[in-house]
Design a protein that fits this description.
Layout (H helix, E strand, L loop, with lengths): L11 E3 L10 E4 L5 H9 L3 E4 L3 H14 L8 H15 L2 E5 L14 H8 L6 E4 H16 L1 E3 L4 E3 L12 H8 L7 E5 L5 H8 L4 E6 L2 H14 L5 E4 L8 E6 L22 H9 L4 E12 L1 H4 L5 H10 L2 E9 L14 H4 L4 E8 L12
Parallel strand pairs: 1-5, 2-3, 3-4, 8-9, 8-11, 9-10, 11-12
Antiparallel strand pairs: 4-5, 6-7, 12-14, 13-14
GO molecular function: methyltransferase activity
Protein name: Methyltransferase
InterPro entries: N5-glutamine_MTase (IPR050320), SAM-dependent_MTases_sf (IPR029063), Small_mtfrase_dom (IPR007848)
């Protein structure tokens, strides 16, 4: 978000996704056609909108339709299509005046939503309309919250922190028999929903870790709302110091590249987090303790990982499977035939793997001479 000499009054570039600003920016308005806007954006030109705000949203929708679809294509082709679509649509820009004021006709008040994400504003800026709509939507979810039946309460996600809208993985943690109520680690806590469920079930001490400060801020706010002030948060690369008799982790499920910070909750290139968790787990799991690894088999259904590879990873890390709890998804995309991944989602199963450190077999005593 460094100041840039954009051709729109010297406005600085605002982004949360590390996207580079377009080299060329032209001014467009209500008279610009969707075909012309799409042609310019596809060629790399930024489009600074100066017109009616609802018309800007309509133009964004029209440009999206011109991006086409990748339905029926292999998963990687779909991901490449999504990335190209995001780049093109991200070039439709709107201005923000100091204080995050949107100076467009019939424009909404975005000041609070933008301040939550971008911080204070003292200079004019340009921001992708697509990103701005995401910022506003995230603010609305933060205010409204997501109902979590296992808690009998709501979790309030922040922008850039994955929302627990897929409740099946929460249900797995809520129903699996606890091996202990003494201490648990929640690795990669995000909104803190799983740590909160453990506390709600009576676990006396829960240490929730994440390597994203905004996730930890979100978790702390949720713990305070729920009255779980005793839950601990720690910025860490996976594990806190020490060992626990229960370790819970819901890592990204798909071994593919993430295009945005939010996607890092879903996509993990090479399953790096998964393998790091498994490799280091034996050093942080108390003797006789249990680790709950929550994974969907969507990666297997898409041909990105096999069940044999997952089991081999357990074996290499000195782990064995004590049990497994399965659940089918209930979210709308699982039954939406228009979803590009519908065939796989219709068969998807989410599992909670109960892992323990493998017991070493006692060596036989040497035969007497």
């Amino acid at each position: 978000m460094n100041p840039l000499s954009l051709k729109d009054g010297g406005r600085r570039w605002l982004t949360t996704v590390s996207a580079s600003p377009p080299r060329t920016v032209v001014t467009i308005d209500d008279g610009t056609t969707a075909d012309e806007a799409f042609r310019l954006a596809a060629a790399g030109t930024g489009l600074a909108w100066h017109g009616d705000f609802p018309n800007a949203r309509n133009l964004l929708s029209a440009m999206s339709r011109r991006c086409g679809t990748a339905a029926g294509k292999p998963f990687q082709d779909q991901r490449n299509h999504q990335a190209r679509r995001a780049r093109i649509l991200g070039r439709l820009l709107v201005p923000l005046d100091p204080g995050h004021v949107l100076p467009l006709r019939r424009g909404p008040d975005v000041r609070v939503a933008c301040a939550e994400v971008y911080g204070p504003s003292e200079s004019p800026a340009l921001v992708s309309l697509r990103e701005l709509l995401g910022v506003v939507g995230a603010h609305e979810w933060r205010v409204k919250g997501v109902e979590i039946p296992a808690l009998g309460a709501k979790i309030h996600p922040h922008h850039g922190v994955f929302s627990p809208v897929r409740g099946e993985y929460v249900d797995l943690v809520a129903r699996t028999p606890l091996p202990t109520r003494e201490l648990a680690f929640d690795i990669g806590t995000g909104t803190g929903v799983l740590a909160a469920v453990l506390a709600h079930r009576g676990v006396e001490r829960v240490v929730a870790t994440d390597n994203e400060p905004r996730a930890l801020a979100c978790a702390r706010e949720n713990f305070e709302r729920l009255g779980f002030g005793g839950l601990e948060t720690l910025e860490a690369d996976l594990f806190p110091p020490g060992r626990a008799p229960l370790v819970v982790c819901n890592p990204p499920w798909l071994p593919a590249r993430a295009h945005t910070p939010l996607e890092r909750a879903v996509y993990d290139p090479g399953s790096r987090m998964l393998h790091a968790f498994l490799d280091r787990l034996p050093r942080h799991l108390a003797p006789g303790g249990e680790a709950w690894l929550i994974l969907s088999d969507l990666a297997e259904l898409l041909g990105l990982r096999t069940r044999e590879q997952l089991l081999a990873a357990f074996e290499r890390s000195g782990l064995e499977v004590r049990g497994r709890q399965d659940i089918r998804p209930r979210h709308p995309r699982a039954t939406d035939p228009g979803d590009p991944l519908h065939d796989a989602r219709a068969r998807e199963v989410t599992s909670l793997w109960q892992l323990t450190t493998r017991r070493l077999k006692a060596r036989a005593a040497p035969a007497p001479d």
